[in-house]
Amino acid sequence: MFGARCVRLALRHSSSAPLPKHAATAKLLRVKEALEVQNPTSNDVKVQGWVRSVRSQKEILFLHVNDGSSLESLQVVADPGLEPRELSFGSSVEVQGKLIRSPHKRQNVELAAESIRLVGTCDVL
């Protein structure tokens, strides 16, 4: 709990760059809240947390993001062009996009990312 609170505070105060137009309307959700959505709508949402895994393929990028609110991670699906170069396991990110119904039976929803902002890197050495 304490770690997620610190990330949120750091996110609020870390960037002086203007937010994208859709950032002001994106609703901030915890991973637990996002995973509990039964009927996803086309509203913009924002999730902040740490990267648990990264898989980049030719046409699609998969991230698993967790903020400590749930034991499960939220799967993020994105275009590989959105991937910041320094993105790795343990990095803190802010992902904005739309919750969509997942085609897989193991998960109810996934986040179709429109933007991925790297908040902090994780030194894996």
TrEMBL record:
List keywords of the entry alphabetically.
Aminoacyl-tRNA synthetase, Ligase, Protein biosynthesis
Q: Does the keyword Protein transport apply?
A: no
Q: Which GO terms describe its molecular function?
A: ligase activity
Q: Which InterPro entries match?
A: NA-bd_OB-fold, NA-bd_OB_tRNA
Q: Which SUPFAM superfamilies match?
A: Nucleic acid-binding proteins
What span is annotated as the signal peptide, if there is one?
A: none
User: Matching Pfam families, A to Z?
Assistant: tRNA_anti-codon
List residues of the OB domain.
45-118
Q: Does the keyword Cell inner membrane apply?
A: no
Its protein name is Probable asparagine--tRNA ligase, mitochondrial
Organism this protein belongs to:
Gekko japonicus (Schlegel's Japanese gecko)
